[in-house]
UniProtKB/TrEMBL annotation:
Keyword Hydrolase (UniProt): yes
One Gene Ontology molecular-function label: hydrolase activity, hydrolyzing O-glycosyl compounds
Compositionally biased tracts (Polar residues): 185-202
Positions of the record's site feature: Important for catalytic activity, responsible for pKa modulation of the active site Glu and correct orientation of both the proton donor and substrate: 149
InterPro entries, per the entry: ConA-like_dom_sf, GH43_C2, Glyco_hydro_43, Glyco_hydro_beta-prop_sf, Glycosyl_Hydrlase_43
Organism: Saxophila tyrrhenica
Protein name (record): Beta-xylosidase C-terminal Concanavalin A-like domain-containing protein
Region ranges (Disordered): 185-204
Alphabetical keyword list: Glycosidase, Hydrolase, Signal
A Pfam family per the record: Glyco_hydro_43
One BP term from GO: carbohydrate metabolic process
Signal peptide stretch: 1-18
Amino acid sequence: MRATAVAGLAGLAGLSCAGETTYHNPIIPGFHPDPSCIFVPEWDNTHFCAVSSFIAFPAMPVFASKDLVNWKLISHVQNRPSQSPTAGNLTRSSGGWYAPTLRYHEGKFYVINVDVDAPSPSSGIFTTTDPYDDAAWSDLLPVEIGGYDPDIFFDEDGTIYSQAAITINDDPFTTEIQQFTIELPSGNTTPRKSLTNGTNVQPPEGPHMYYKDGWYYLLLAEGGTALDHQVTISRSRKPTGPFKLGPANPILTAEPDSLFQTVGHADLFQDAEGNWWGVALSTRSGPEYVHWPMNRETVLYPVSWPKGEWPVLDHVRGTMSGPLPPQNLDVPGTGPFVKDPDHYTFPRGSPLPRHFTFWRFPHEEKYTISPPGHANSLRLSPSNANLSQFPAFDPLAGQTFVGRRQVDTLFKYSVDMEFAPSSKGEEAGVTMFLASERHADLGVVYSKGAPHLRFRANGPDAPATVVKPLPKGCEDGISFQIHAFNFTHYSFSAGPRHGGRMEDIALVNNTLFSTSFTGVFAGIYATTNGNGEEGTPAYFKNWRYQGLGQAGAIDKDGSVEYYPSNGQE
Ligand SMILES: *[C@@H]1O[C@H](CO)[C@@H](O)[C@H](O)[C@H]1NC(C)=O
Ligand SMILES: *[C@@H]1O[C@H](CO)[C@@H](O)[C@H](O)[C@H]1NC(C)=O
Ligand SMILES: *[C@@H]1O[C@H](CO)[C@@H](O)[C@H](O)[C@H]1NC(C)=O
Ligand SMILES: *[C@@H]1O[C@H](CO)[C@@H](O)[C@H](O)[C@H]1NC(C)=O
Ligand SMILES: *[C@@H]1O[C@H](CO)[C@@H](O)[C@H](O)[C@H]1NC(C)=O
């Protein structure tokens, strides 16, 4: 259980002027891209967001907030393999669940999405009548979509439209927004029709439709999810078009010199007071775009949208102000707020914390809290597979790994481990993990007849492997620490569990993790390195993660400015 209950304080700076409150971006930091958000008055005036998760599991985290600043993890859309079994059988680290669209209609929450790379038709709709309960999310209702980033729009006449990015001309980087209708409950669709390319900055994607003041508005992401990412809008009197472009496209993109780059993939919603807000993804890389291990995070900005006119979106910055609802941490559910620090001791009978995440489907028997004789520990039983992929890799066989997203630019993560390996290849330890192709691990491995300390990283320009005898005093337990101590580097260190000197073992430049679509996890693993599914388990204790600063801006001289992480002393 959480030993500390620190939430949200650093995220609120108080009233500035009449009704305007300052707040910090990102609102949902770390690997939480492609936000789709709604306001649901029937659920106690609460805002809800769902985000992409690729092959991480449980998949598609759902957050709730009453004040738009403090976001609690309340469920995952796919939390059981049986809801969509093919999602665990993907090889590519950047396949899986891309951008969901979350909507609420007549008492039900809908998430429509595509499991990219999975055999067709692993796409469709999940529904729930209680977003706080994992078990209430339905199995996938298959809907043939044929592309990615599907939208779902309930028109007043009862027609359900979907818009999606469809790859065309046999070129993976050329898409077109196409439209079809969906019949429920069957999931049957009408044939897709070309709808628009937006402003023709390829690839158009992430469509969302809104109806307001007699107009159907279509919001798109264009330019790809890196430095050219942007938001465009068009509108029509009919949901089927033709859509006429707005006069001020792109209506949102990153400011050229900002820390906050790649701004795009937006969604818009109103709060209880009728104020409009937008969310988008953004990467805190600065224009150099070299160091960005957390990759695409969720940001919030005020929107002004007068009747009959086009919406105007505020620029995304680290410190913002707007007419926020009053601070309110009274959100149901057992998950943490996303910016909470961790301190877990795994007492008997406690569940795994809700934000602990696996890579593909876990084999649950490999993760046990406080087994007999090992109170206050999380036991990891090794997988045959290590954290890397290899020619015979079977995605369904499982990799014993569990982690939590890095959500602070600077942080310390530490955990103690009891592990007595006795045969070749047995290994357990801590990792910064982006994907099978890119991770950095510090652990104990059995080699040459004895346990050794080993640091090993995978990926281009990875630092050299370090193998050394176990530090003195570590035979009965070792303590590991990963420290993101500046904007560009992590240090990995180890020392005796019961105190004593921590020894720095390796420095890792975070460009190792600055790639692709996902963001990095801090976590633990256990493997036999290809010597079978049976082996010596490892017992992890005293898991801590504490943020030590959030990058909020870049100064004129190029240095990064920080604001405090939640719970930071
Ligand atoms: C997993 O996917 C592979 C193809 O990539 C397929 O051959 C295999 O049958 C799938 N297994 C299951 C259980 O779906
Ligand atoms: C979108 O652009 C592609 C590539 O240029 C083109 O083939 C397609 O016809 C366009 N679609 C629309 C609806 O304009
Ligand atoms: C972070 O520390 C490393 C190692 O001391 C150093 O090489 C790097 O330049 C530092 N980065 C910044 C942004 O100061
Ligand atoms: C980290 O590595 C990248 C790629 O090799 C390099 O461009 C960058 O300068 C390095 N950063 C630091 C602070 O050394
Ligand atoms: C990871 O596992 C594969 C397959 O068993 C093996 O080839 C590779 O050497 C392992 N890596 C390490 C560092 O042991």
